[in-house]
Amino acid sequence: MRQKPDYDKTPVSRQAVWNDSTMINHDSEEDIGAPATRSRAAMDHVSSTSGEMIPHNSCEPTALAAGNSGNPRLAPSAHATEKLFPTCLVAVLRAAAFLCFAGWTWVHFYWEGPYGILLWQDGTYDFANRLGISWDEFVGTDNDEGWLQKWIARIRWLFLACTLLTVTVRPRSYVQMAGLVGGSLLLCVLSYAKYVASQRQLPMFVEHGGQILSPIVLVLALVLGPRHRITIGTAILAVVMTFAGHGSYAIGWWPTPGIFYGMTCVCLGVSYETANILLRGFGILDFAVCFALFIPGLRQPAAMYAVVWGLLTALARPVAGMSMSLNYWGADQFVHEAILRAPHFLLPLYLVILWRPRQEDEPAIAHTASGTDTNPCSTETTS
Amino acid sequence: MRSLHYTVLGCLAVLLLGGPVLAQQNGSRARKRADLSIPKVAKKDVICFALYTVNDHTLKLTAQLYPLSAGDPKIVRLQIEKDGEWVEVAQTKVIEPGWTAPFRVKDWDDSQQHRYRVAHGDTAFYEGTIRKNPTDQDVIIVAGFTGNSIQPAHGGDISRQDLIDNVNKVDADVLYFSGDQVYDHNRHYAAWLKFGRDFGDIIKDRPTICLPDDHDVGQPNLWGESGKISTLSGASDGGYSKPAVYVKEVERAQTSHLPDPVDPRKVDQGIGVYFTNLNWGNIDFAILEDRKFKTGPAGRVPKQGPRPDHIRNPEYDPKSVDVEGAVLLGDRQLAFLDAWAQDWHAADMKVALSQTIFCGGAHIHGSANGRLHADMDSNGWPQTGRNRALAALRKAFAFHYAGDQHLATLFHHGIDEYRDAVWSFCVPSIANLYLRWWEPIEPGANREPGSPEYTGDQLDGFANKVTNYAAANPEKRPAGNLLNTRAAGFGIVRFNTKTREITMECWPRNVDVTDPDAKQYPGWPRTISQFDNYNPPSWGKLGELSFDVESPVVQLIDADSNDVLYTVRVAGKSFTPGAPKGKSFVIKVGEDAPQRVIAEQAQVGGEPIDVTLD
């Protein structure tokens, strides 16, 4: 529970920025610096020493920390933008993890987590029995008296704690980070329970990848930096899992859930036949996004599509289900379904921001970079 | 730095893979799944099974086929044997999806038994027997089943041969599958074929009634809400989760052989209805289809538990969930019941068949705990709708035969007072996927001597009045988790149209019901009178009616409100009507319909009346 994040500071030098706050390895200052002088081609390379991924169209942020706050080639407005860039990235990741945990916290407090299918088993009881818990203690005799009910109820507090941690965690808050990693494990178990409940349909687990990994991406962004290749790679993995899972259902490789048809028909007012065609098309696009995220020329528009589609599919739950005729307009039934899916559009948004096109100073930077440095590694020695 | 990368990646791998591995319990057993592959069959075996009913001289038979090849003929023929020759009586086109071939034959002679065969092409034939209408039998036997799980984890893969053998031994006249014939939520067709392979040998030779329930249409619970689209996980917002095309395929496969619906107007999404009646052996069965119009609770009732349909708070006000506008049976169904209750042509007894019972029939759900105060998936909710349904049924002295609960129970229902409405028998599951217990916290009142504490008068979780007489509770921790330790089994009900007695039997699996040493679940068998289905304790008796004809139809009408109190075909030449004290009634009598008024101000304690009808 401590100190200011690096990205809140005005960068004085590359090292000053990240050394002070991100805990990134100090010998790999490339995380913010040199790309200002990199060629466009070089931007697509990855630093072999640090792992920092510098996308070709993400060179602006590198100018920020490179000690280039006084770079004459950057307009003042660009400087201001660049100062906010890492802050913005981490804020997006923070929001993704926060909303995901907040949604699930709501589920655990207001409704109930989906653990029943895992816990009401002889194997679970046998495990408890080995801990000296009797059958009666295990199952209880009345409402919420059993060992299981008590522990299921306690999980809600873990989710609440994780929600708070997403707000309070800072780059050197290792204990809090460990808590978030634990929260990710909770999401993993939760997703596994849903996977089992779905009669072990693999996409059911896979599609939760975005939610499971959202706290991990946040932790990585704080530890390694929001543009570190592991951070970016994990975010891409999370998006790919979400879209591949959804796509597997939509395209029909696994039975398309009825709710997919229902939401499509209700939201768009189309027939089943049309919904079927649309879902197959959306499924193909889901996989197209997964592949396009790895293609430099396509990844930015693919991520933008993922933002829009992730947002629409999250909102589809309340849009399709809420009604003026229901108590609270049905908000307590449906809104959390959209909130906990926030990583589905915020993780792609993180990628969109990361890969956003150059601004007005781009030509100057590109010109300089192309003429001076095509090796990202070499730039690191300049600091 | 590289080591850091590997460490982080390793952690990621552990996170993604470790959770599932750690969470995996009983992995090997759980992974043993039911085989739902569709077998490749020879052309001669392409007809899997056939279901039929005969009502009002109309035969409806649905043949279920395995998938046909593109070049195969799509026409299927129905032939009956006459003088040693097969004579075609109908042909039909196979309907996709689902490969069903529904036949409808009018002017069917139900006074004779007929051998039939369904024919496809020149090589595929499937034979069975269309029974004659057993109007000459004193006792009609209806075997009841529900919950046909095929998962090995709880014995669903164990052979059904014991059920086949027992149905044949008692020579059941009617088979009644009250729901969840199929548990697979995505492959109804494959599972339905398996159902046919398992039960086809008894289905082909006797009328069979199937009511598709929630799992049949691919969702965990079902509040049909007139066919709306459900978009909430768990479907408690009401409606159907699966596309209408799937629901229609299910209903076509399971119900297209039922008598024509009495009011065939479709509901939303073009989904059909099948509520109707079947008259067989002088017993008039109302097929209720109680899920089709029922309102979903999510967002309509105050939240009282961890799910929109579950009430965990024992302090809640039951009236708070009986919200205005919540429907159980639709107006069309209630109108049908009103007419059905007054129509006693060719009927000595009335039986209502529905997916589930009209009360919250269990306290503990899922495992040995999970106590629920109330479950809105049961027909105990909405209470007003429940009372309307029971009020309609008791006007016909109808016995209620149902399933769904995964727990066999015997209830005498009450509306205004205990035991003032019909009896219900909920049969046990064929293989029990989900355990439930009837285990009230307080002992029931007015229990029979020596009966368990869970019997007697109780309020269910919705404050509905119920009197329990038996519950086949599973073991608290089912040893081996297979069939009978999970209270699996089936029901047999014997309707005696002469004595008007109804005998309910509740059998475990893998017993010989003809063996004198075979034991039923505790509390069974039980025999009641048809007239117990509307005999409130507070009532008195009018003067005895004596007739010059056998078993006429008697109707009582409230002289003030003009509401029909009940209509019934009496047994024999005398009848002493029961009625509320302090009220006056019009009594109407007729041989087959109550057409003649014989008293206009009859009251409890009145004089006997001799009635001449001939």
UniProtKB/TrEMBL annotation, chain A:
<feature type="transmembrane region" description="Helical">
    <location>
        <begin position="174"/>
        <end position="193"/>
    </location>
</feature>
<feature type="transmembrane region" description="Helical">
    <location>
        <begin position="338"/>
        <end position="355"/>
    </location>
</feature>
<protein>
    <submittedName>
        <fullName>Uncharacterized protein</fullName>
    </submittedName>
</protein>
<feature type="region of interest" description="Disordered">
    <location>
        <begin position="18"/>
        <end position="67"/>
    </location>
</feature>
<keyword id="KW-0812">Transmembrane</keyword>
<feature type="transmembrane region" description="Helical">
    <location>
        <begin position="84"/>
        <end position="107"/>
    </location>
</feature>
<feature type="transmembrane region" description="Helical">
    <location>
        <begin position="151"/>
        <end position="167"/>
    </location>
</feature>
<keyword id="KW-0472">Membrane</keyword>
<feature type="transmembrane region" description="Helical">
    <location>
        <begin position="302"/>
        <end position="326"/>
    </location>
</feature>
<feature type="transmembrane region" description="Helical">
    <location>
        <begin position="205"/>
        <end position="225"/>
    </location>
</feature>
<keyword id="KW-1133">Transmembrane helix</keyword>
<feature type="transmembrane region" description="Helical">
    <location>
        <begin position="277"/>
        <end position="295"/>
    </location>
</feature>
<feature type="transmembrane region" description="Helical">
    <location>
        <begin position="232"/>
        <end position="254"/>
    </location>
</feature>
Automatic annotation (TrEMBL), chain B:
<dbReference type="InterPro" id="IPR029052">
    <property type="entry name" value="Metallo-depent_PP-like"/>
</dbReference>
<feature type="compositionally biased region" description="Basic and acidic residues">
    <location>
        <begin position="306"/>
        <end position="317"/>
    </location>
</feature>
<feature type="region of interest" description="Disordered">
    <location>
        <begin position="296"/>
        <end position="317"/>
    </location>
</feature>
<dbReference type="InterPro" id="IPR038607">
    <property type="entry name" value="PhoD-like_sf"/>
</dbReference>
<protein>
    <recommendedName>
        <fullName>PhoD-like phosphatase</fullName>
    </recommendedName>
</protein>
